[in-house]
Amino acid sequence: TLCARWQDGSAPTPLWAEIEDFATTFGPRRGGSGQVHLLDGRPLHCRFDRLAGGATLVGFRMVDGVRRPSRAKAMA
Predict the structure, then answer these.
(1) pTM listed for this prediction
(2) In the chain, beta strands by DSSP E
(3) What is the pLDDT of residue 72?
(4) Backbone phi and psi for residue 50, each to the nearest 5 degrees, phi listed first
(5) CA angle 32, 33, 37 (to 5 degrees)
(6) How far apart are CA 1 and CA 3, in angstroms?
(7) Pair 50, 59: CB distance under 8 Å
(8) Could you tell me which of 1, 13, 33, 65 has the fewest CB atoms within 10 Å of its CB?
(9) For 1-76, where are the alpha helices, taking DSSP H only?
(10) What span, in angstroms and rounded, lies between the C-alpha atoms of 15 and 42?
């Protein structure tokens, strides 16, 4: 799935399962948001919401001014 591709490029987080569950659930549902960290440490804000006709919108935005050390630097 597309969600799995994003999940492979980021640190583990339960947010991906929440987004995937949201996208595969039909009927009324509430969107949400959260933050993940890419494998290089950059934070990414994710937002998901429903659209007309049962479609799902997932948006991504880089978080400005915040940087976590990469795994390689953290392990050194």
Answers:
(1) 0.72
(2) 32-37, 43-50, 56-62
(3) 47
(4) -90, 155
(5) 150
(6) 5
(7) no
(8) 65
(9) 2-8, 15-24, 71-75
(10) 16
